[in-house]
Design brief:
- The chain has about 220 residues and is mainly beta.
- The chain has 4 helices and 12 strands.
- Strands 1-2-3-4-5-6-7-9-10-11 form a 10-stranded antiparallel barrel.
- Strand 2 and strand 3 (about 75-80) form a beta hairpin.
- The protein starts with a helix and ends in a 30-residue tail after the last strand.
Length: about 220
């Protein structure tokens, strides 16, 4: 069976991730996960515009989250339903980076492993595939995937210089399929996925960039 998108991007590092994180990124074809999430949108007018353009959900607390994953031909489609607000993105491999298209904006992320956690950090973006954004602007666009008590959790924080926070969301997810959920909890698959956030309150979680390294090198942590 061919490797998944995240297996190809991370190589041997993929197998050092927490079982819950691996489980979410292993399936091919169709899979469904559900959980709970909270979202915090920034208040700056330009932050609101950026969130609107990328189709981010409005601020909500502890709402149901349903995610449908469809993987085929080297790409993945993630369709998230935040209590009725649908956010769809398309992920693919761009050289050694993960590409994600959200509406008219295409992002380029570098993936890192820190311990058994998976981190994303923005390294590039284009609007309508033409207009590039300065790479330095993307340093504040980060994601963290981790396991807590055998369950899949995530945290996403997006900020831009001079504007501040665009959106922050955090929560948990678990497989909708009971059999898969059981394997995850036994450490044989990926556990549930979570999400939460709230307007203009700073996240207390330290999201540091991950650096994917070979097994013969020790992990490097990029300073904040």
């Amino acid at each position: 069976m061919s490797a998944s998108l995240f297996q190809r991007l991370l190589g041997a590092e993929f197998y050092h991730l927490a079982p819950a994180v691996k489980a979410l990124h292993l399936p091919r074809g169709n899979s469904h996960w559900h959980g709970q999430c909270s979202i915090q949108r920034g208040r700056h007018p330009l932050a609101r515009l950026a969130a609107f353009v990328t189709r981010m959900p409005p601020s909500m607390q502890a709402v149901p989250l349903h995610v449908h994953f469809h993987a085929e031909a080297g790409r993945e489609v993630w369709q998230r339903d935040f209590n009725g607000h649908v956010l769809r993105s398309v992920l693919s491999k761009h050289h050694q980076h993960l590409g994600e298209r959200l509406g008219p904006v295409s992002f380029r992320f570098r993936l890192y492993r820190i311990g058994d956690e998976l981190r994303w950090i923005g390294e590039g973006a284009r609007i309508f595939g033409i207009l590039p954004l300065p790479a330095s602007w993307l340093d504040g666009v980060r994601s963290r995937e981790y396991s807590e008590n055998g369950r899949y959790h995530f945290e996403v924080d997006a900020r831009l210089p001079w504007i501040g926070r665009i959106v922050h969301y955090q929560g948990w997810l678990q497989p909708a399929n009971e059999a898969q959920a059981g394997r995850v909890l036994r450490g044989k698959a990926a556990p549930p996925f979570a999400c939460s956030s709230s307007d203009d309150t700073e996240s207390t979680t330290d999201i540091r960039p991950m650096q994917a390294v070979s097994l013969s090198h020790k992990l490097a942590l990029t300073p904040q």
